[in-house]
Amino acid sequence: MSENITRRAVLKNLAAIAGGILAMPAARTCKAGVQNVLASSNAPAGYDPFQHKWLMAFDVDRCIGCGLCVEACCEENAVPEGHWRTWIERYVIKKPEAGSGKTRGETVVDSPDGGKEGFPRLLIPKEEILKSFFVPKMCNLCEHSPCTQVCPVGATFDAPDGAVLVDKSYCIGCGFCIQACPYGCRFLNPETHTADKCSLCYHRITRGLKPACVEICPSQARIFGDLKNPAPGLENDPLQQFIAKNKVEELKPSLGTGPRLAYAGLDEVVR
Amino acid sequence: MPRLLKMPPQIVRLVLLTIGILCVYFTARFFLTPPSFGLHGHYRFDALHDMASREPYWAGKAACVECHTDHAAKLAKGEHKTLSCETCHGPGRAHVEDWAVKLPKLNMSLCVRCHEASPSRPQWLHQINVHDHYTGNLCTECHVPHQPNEVP
Fold this sequence. Notes:
- Chain A folds into two domains: 49-142 and 198-264, 2-Layer Sandwich (Alpha-Beta Plaits), CATH 3.30.70; 146-196, Alpha-Beta Plaits (2-Layer Sandwich).
- In chain A, 25% of the residues lie in helices and 17% in strands.
- Chain A contains seven helices and eleven strands.
- By secondary structure, chain B is mainly alpha-helical.
- The mean pLDDT of chain B is 90.
């Protein structure tokens, strides 16, 4: 085999390699051209996701169950009827039966239309109620989010600023992430046929506005802040103050998803 | 090379077909993968900008306060200081962009939505049983929404 190598063959091969190297920039230019046609981005400049870390906290004792946050979210994000990116749950814990030796009775939870129109009058008589309260729910902004791990196409991801987002143009609507979320925070949008969820109002927070639910909440039950850019002097930052002053906990910490939403004033029945 | 040629023709065809398919796949992937995919993880980084480019719906309290400083100052003194303007007055973006667009008049159902008594509501909130409390139409006959502790 080796005695067959001719000068001509060697030159031919060298020419082919040189041609290949020269073709690379041409291919790159060509690729850039193709991608310019495919690209859809018209980004507002000036926001660096690596310079922020967003977090939401909830003061359960401040929630009055008006449902205005749910309504605000649905309007801000054009959430289809019957789906919610955030919702309010009403917990009613009944008194234990006399002589049962228990601390509490049955727990009843309801969330009519996600609490969007407020809550109807309780049907359980007041004398039977041990305690009752509202709990706002939304995406838990998990540190090790199970929803992003199961996505087969890289359409949902943990953004560097703490938001867990869905790339609508990449999502194939398989629904794996909806099943993976242990908090039930995702749904399949019947209009776009893609997975949908709380985006932390990404178009608002990147413009320096608060998320719609936080903006509209009348009782400051939702506290939103940037952990990387607290208000000067930490003690002025509402989020840092809230976490410093309250005993906060996460939902379902045992699952190892690393939920980041901080709740103060939770009862043990809340999951 | 001669060894390869000695392979049965159906195997050679299979190998060539596989190489062909792989070439098409890698060429397509080279051209079709968005430039920002994989930049900071297994996702399209430009998706962040796509999401950010949407226009907000609620204007935010800061936009209202720019002009209505008098109302804002009044509100800040009373118990309703935690409320955003749009909590009661509704979305105000259209009004911010064009002052000729007026926001709708408010009605009593809005007050009741928060202040109707319920055993689920926290103790600190002022609550009323609407039907025992008042039978008229206007809460504002007795209350000033911007300064709830004042009497009109």
